[in-house]
Amino acid sequence: MTSNNENYYSYVSDYLFINFLNTINIKKIAVTDFLEEENGIEDWLSFMRNHGILNLQQVEQLEKSSIDVKKMKDFRDQWRNYFEESEELQNAIESLAMYTKQTPLYFDLSLKPIPSKGGTEGLLAMLSFEMLQASQSGIFKKLKKCDNSVCYAFFIDTSGKRKWCSMEVCGNREKARRHYAKKLSS
Prior knowledge:
By secondary structure, this protein is mainly alpha-helical. The protein contains 8 helices and 6 strands; from the N terminus they run αββααααββααββα. The strands form 3 sheets. Strands 1-2 form a two-stranded antiparallel sheet.
């Protein structure tokens, strides 16, 4: 990842799992999978820490073992498909509980979950735990994919009316695209 990480992610959420779903994006007309880049997972963990989504203790624990990029991509892609296709999530939610049972979490003084193992198992357990909480609190029902045809980002729509991950970026681009197309057809 480049030193200017801000431009890599079209949308940064307060939810770790949404940021993980958003590790794939379109940049300069090409699909970019940030997990496949050199040091992709490490850079993403660092980015999450710098934005206060993960703390130092969580990142240090995760970095104690290697993280299998293929397993993480499979997990991400599976969940992106569930959310894009609005499939029945009950069986998938049960699979999340399996990850938290395999790698139990403990909590620091601020109640942040710390995995008992690092690496792939720890990251899957943390993501699964947060996703189980989100499912339980109704966040899954508010999760949307950006309406911009060239954006891969997911976001939480609390108003029920939001279409884009970012009005400043995707919303303005899509409105300009529609305006230009309408102007050409006139």
